[in-house]
Structures are given as structure tokens and as C-alpha cells.
Amino acid sequence: MTQNNETILQVQNVSKRFGGLLAVAEVTFDLPKGQILGLIGPNGAGKTTLFNVINGVYAPTEGKVIFRGTDVSGWQPYDVVKLGLARTHQIVRPLQELTVLENVMAGACYGHENRSLHDAEEIAHEVLNFVNLDSRANQLAKSLNVGQKKRLEMARSLAARPHLLLLDEVLAGLNPTEIAEMVEVVLKIREQGITILIIEHVMHALMNVSDRVIVLDYGRLIAEGTPDEIANDEKVIEAYLGDPKLAEKLMSGE
Amino acid sequence: MSFKSIKYPAFWISVGLVALAGILPLITGSNTTRETMFLVLTAIALASSLNMLLGYAGYVSFGHIVFLGFGGYVGFYLIVDHNWSLWLAMLVGGLMAGLLALLLGKAILHLRGAYFALATIGVNEAIKTFVKNFDLFGGPVGLEVNFLVYKDYGGPAQMQWTTYWAIFGLALLAVLVSYAIKFSRFGLGLMAIREDEDAAMVLGVRTPSAKTWAYVLSAIIPGMLGVILFFRNSSVEPEDAFRLHRSIEFIVMVMLGGQGTVLGPLVGAATYDTLRGFLLTSPLFKDLQLAFAGLLLLLIVLFVPTGIVGWLRGRFRQLWRVLE
């Protein structure tokens, strides 16, 4: 196996089977350091399952996940975190009865830098400022609205100071202003040198931020390329939307 | 525990309340007060210990009395059969209870919710049955200490005071440990587990070991306390040592006062124990005391799930840093 220093994540021939259902089928791709890689596909294509295999929630049925040169297939999520991976959840999972600050501190304490409580508090404020949520620091997480909870998820994962960030539909359910803000946050994260793998259904936003895009359909990787290539790939449009004209409309963001 | 947290009023309130309860018998100078406070301090020590698991990590241990029974038995056996000093026996009793929790933790802490709670009941019954049939521990008859041993502790009357101060010390220790956990990195991990265990794993909390250590910490003080209790009563038998309904009473105390707070178990233990004393001495209710505990638990879960302290915190936001 060749070890490329510039590749932070290698997914090699990964399959995940739940009983009779093959949720992810022989998926292979490399993610170069510093890039934003978009992951798209119709509902049920296996995108979130692939995330869960990468970060250790599920062990792959077959294949390997190599993160920063280490084979992490079958590791527990908390062990993968220690190598510098963090993620957000599609359905937000705030620690409801803890404050916003404590939520983010937990991310810093248990992220790969293993910070002390004292350092964690500093990092938490910094990250909350970054996502523009610091004014809510002492509120209970359950009191936030959806947009704020999404930013909290983001802050908590950033507080871990990851090398690779998995973003699972951080734009879903946000209004256009919030989407614009969040896209800006994502781009700023990349400027810090953090590699991002992002699942998104808001197409125009995804196409704008991604360096490359991969497409899953029924668990299989059906296309890989630049956003332009993907947008004009007949196979993708067919699988993803079924209607090329609708696709065009969505791409333009109307 | 960082020194910063000692600045919080919550710390001084908790420690102050326990200290006040502890020295009350000195002020009144009456043995009745001492016996009343003995029960209150016992309840505080046990409820605070249970809170480390139930309140912080969110795992309901129904059979928590097993640690009191088992640790107490081990320590009492060492006193009765091997003439160990009470203090050494107490330490070993606590450690053995901790060791039991460590082994149990590996076996049953991967269970969640009701399954874990059921497993802890099973463990209590299993250990009770084991002790009943274990000749070294006196089997179904139990163990009895020779009264002459009390001479080493200043005679039976003085022994009552000595053991009282021991329980006072354990109650203080339980509150201090509760406080230290609550404001530590470890405690933050436990509370993350309580709120969402899967999310905690993804955040990087090593959930199996965090839960196990919470379980161990919550077992040690009950184990030590068991040794003191059995020594003070001069005897123990299995049916007394492993009473499941005592376990449920601890849960009521923690829930009544407010799970997950340091102050909650204190308030809950004192309140419940006072009520219990009242009910036991009232001719009308004396047989209904447990039914009352059950009703109380039901009402708390339905109407004030965060308990007295939690309710006050939610109602008066300015009390947040005072009541923790």
C-alpha cells in the first residue's frame, strides 16, 4: 500500500451491510489534505452510513478506512476522535441539559488534544465567537432554535481541533441568510487548514464550496469529479433527480 | 477540583449544611439528636454516592444497596473473625465494594436504561443468596461481634459517638467527591453520557471506562458505610444487609432533591429521612411508609422530574451559581 502524505483519508473498497441491505457498496476514494470534498446522493443512498463507518460508529463489513496513515476500520468512535477527526450530526444532538458553553467544552476536552477544563473554556469561547454563538454561551442547549443548534454542533466539533471534519447536512433546515452565514463559516474553516468532507442537499451551496464532489447512489459510488463535471454528468442527474431540467433550476439556486 | 470552584457559594452551602447537621448533637448534647442525625448523615452519604452514577452519568442503579451489604460484610467479617481495627476494616470494605463495582461494570454497564436497572436488582439478589450460603460470612444467621471489642473504642457508649463521627466524615467525603466530580473534566464526560451517550462517544468520551469509574466511585463510600453500620449494630444478617427497598429509598432521595446536582441529594436525603421518621412514628402511617415512598417517586417523576433543587434552579435563574 502506498502511503501518500498529502492524503488525509483513504476509503478503500468499503462496504457496510445491515442484514440483507447493502447500505454502502465497495466505495473507494481518497481525500487530499486541505480540500473540501462534497458527498451527494439521493435520500437513502448511504451517505450518513458512510460517515458512520468512517468515524467508527459502525465497523465496515468489508474494506478499510485509513485516516492519517492509520487503519481505523472497526475502531470505536472515541478512539478515532483522538487521531483528529470530528463530525456533526444530520439530526442535531446537543447535550440538552448542559449549557452551550459546556457542550463546546466537552468537544475540546475530549477532542484529540485532550485539553484540560480550563483550556477548554478558552477554546470554547473562541469557537463560539467564530460561529457567532458566544452571546448564548450560558444558555441551556435545549433553549436554542434549529439554526443555533446547527451552529452549536459545528462549534462542538471545531472545539476538538480536528484535522478532518465530517459535516452532515449542516445547511438543512436553515433559511437563506443562515445558509449564507454557514457557508462562510465552512470556507473559513478550510482556511484554517482543516480538511472537510461534507454531505449536503442544498446544491448551489455545496457546488460553491466543494473542490471535488463524489456521488453515491444505492450505496455505490457512481461519479467523482469537480462540481462542474458532476453538475453536467448525465448519470448523476438521472440518479439524483431523474429530471435534468429540475436539476438546472436547483443549481442556479432558485 | 480546581481552586476556582471552591469560590462558588454552592460549595460552601453543601459543606456547611453537612457540617451543621453533623455538629447539631454537640450543641443539643442529646443522644436522641445524635441518633436522628446519624440517620440523616447516613442518608446523605448514600444518596450523594448514588448521585455520582444516577445523577451525573444517568444510569439508574436499583440495587445499589449491594455495595453497602457486600463492603459491610467483608469489613465486618475482618473485625469479627480477624480482630482487625474498625478503620482498616472500613477501608478494605470500601475497596472491596469498589472492586465489585469494577467487575460488575465490565459485565453490565454496556446495558442501557431499564436493562441496566434490572441487572443491578439481579446482582443484589445474587449476592444476597451467595452470602446466605457462604459459611465464612455466617450463612443465613450472619455475623455477630463480641461486645468486648467495643472496649477498644472506649466502651459501648463512646463507640456510639465514634461511629457517629465516622458517618459524619463519610457524609462530608461523599459531598466533597460529588463536588469534585461535578466540576471536573471527568464529570463533564459523565454528563455528556447522561445527555446522549452516542453523541458522547462521537465527541471522544471513552464511555465504557468513564461509566465504570463512576460506578466504582459511587460504590466505595456505601461499602465503607456498611462496615460502620454493622459494627454499630453489633450484628448483621443477609436479609438486613441487602434490603432492596432501601435502594429504592436512595433513588427517591436523589430524585426528590434533584439528580445531577451536589446539593440535591443532601436536600432530598434530609427531607425524605425527616418524612420517614414522621411516618414511622405516626400510628396511622407506620405501615404505609414504603407505599408513601413509591407515591412520592411517582409524583416527582410526573411533576418535578428535576427535583427540589432543579426546580428552584429553573424557577430562579439568579440562583444558578448558588444551587449546584
Task: Walk me through the structure.
The complex is a heterodimer of chains A (254) and B (324). Chain A is an alpha/beta fold and 254 residues long. Chain A contains ten helices and ten strands. In chain A, the strands form two sheets. Chain A has a six-stranded mixed sheet, with helices on both faces. In chain A, strands 2-1-4-5 form a four-stranded antiparallel sheet, with helices on one face. In chain A, strand 1 and strand 2 form a beta hairpin. Chain B is mostly helical and 324 residues long. Helices cover 76% and strands 1% of the residues of chain B. Chain B is built from 15 helices and two strands. The longest helix of chain B has 28 residues, at 155-182. In chain B, 50% of the residues are buried. Classes of the chains: A alpha/beta (254), B mainly alpha (324). Chains A and B meet through helix 2, helix 3 and helix 4 of A and helix 8 and helix 9 of B.
CATH topology of the largest domain in chain A: Rossmann fold
The strand line-up of the biggest sheet of chain A is 6-7-8-3-9-10
Question: What is the percentage of strand-forming residues of chain A?
Answer: 15-25%
Unreliable sequence segments of chain A: none
* Helical amount of chain A: 25-40%
Main β sheet profile of chain A: 6 strands, mixed
Globally, the shape of chain B reads globular
Count of separate structural domains of chain B:
1
Topology:
The complex is a heterodimer of chains A (254) and B (324).
Chain A: E1 7-18, E2 21-32, E3 36-40, H1 47-54, E4 62-67, E5 70-71, H2 77-82, E6 85-87, H3 100-110, H4 117-130, H5 146-159, E7 164-168, H6 176-191, E8 195-199, H7 203-209, E9 212-217, E10 220-225, H8 227-231, H9 234-240, H10 244-251
Parallel strand pairs in A: 3-8, 3-9, 6-7, 7-8
Antiparallel strand pairs in A: 1-2, 1-4, 4-5, 9-10
Helix pairs in contact in A: 3-4, 3-5, 4-5
Chain B: H1 3-6, H2 9-28, H3 31-57, H4 65-82, H5 86-108, H6 114-132, E1 143-144, H7 155-182, H8 185-195, H9 197-203, H10 207-233, E2 235-236, H11 238-241, H12 244-257, H13 263-281, H14 289-303, H15 307-315
Antiparallel strand pairs in B: 1-2
